[in-house]
Amino acid sequence: MANHNWLVTNDGTHRSFGNPEIVEPGRYYRLYRFLTELEDILEIFHDDIGRLEAITPLVRKLLVSSYWLQMEHRDPDPQTGWSVNFLYREHEFPLTVQMVGWLPGRTSTIHNHGSWGIVALVGGQERNRLWRRDPQPDQPDRLELVDEVILNPGDVVALTANAIHSVEALGNEPTVSFNLYGVTNFNDRYEFDLETQTAKRF
Q: Which of 48, 54, 74, 98 is deepest in the core (most CB within 10 A)?
């Protein structure tokens, strides 16, 4: 099965981009080197799409080379249905790098991230439903479902800051993903309630 890079933009549309097939590098590609090159990219590209298109090949290179990362996840909590393992934190380094797990059948809230983000699926299968704002005079936070994307291991979805999605773990095994975001505080992250057609800060 061919892998995909999907770019999801603020209006809920998506398109494929780049080359999803990365040959394993001859030299071991370590996390510290990835973070250094990532920092360089952030100084060059100042728009979400430019950054996502430049960073995604590095994420693929890291996961192909550093297999240990794929084992750095925690079993999802039976009550919440998910787990997070932070891989790197540094003072005044404004990035979140983590491994995330979801139990089969569990779903996330509908949300944006308030920053660009990249999710690379390592294990399991995941449905991403893509939404966009459809404001009405009496419902300024009304949402409209645009499409969905099914992610399999090796697929990557890159989201601009105000892209809105929800996640559902499919199949009979937990999902595991490598998640990278351009912030650490998520102050501009919103969750959306379809029933009341309202939004609130996370």
A: 48
Q: How many CA atoms lie within 13 A of 118 on its CB side?
A: 27
HSE-up (13 A, CA, CB side) for residue 108: 25
pLDDT at 28 > cutoff 70: yes
pLDDT at residue 70 is higher than 90: no
Q: How far is CA 134 from CA 43, 140, 164, 197, in A?
A: 34, 8, 12, 10
* Distant-in-sequence, close-in-space partners of 59: CB < 8 Å, separation ≥ 6: 34, 118, 120, 156, 178, 180
Query: Domains plus CATH for the chain?
Result: 5-201 (2.60.120.10)
Give the per-residue pLDDT at 1.
Answer: 67
| DSSP conformation class of 68 | G
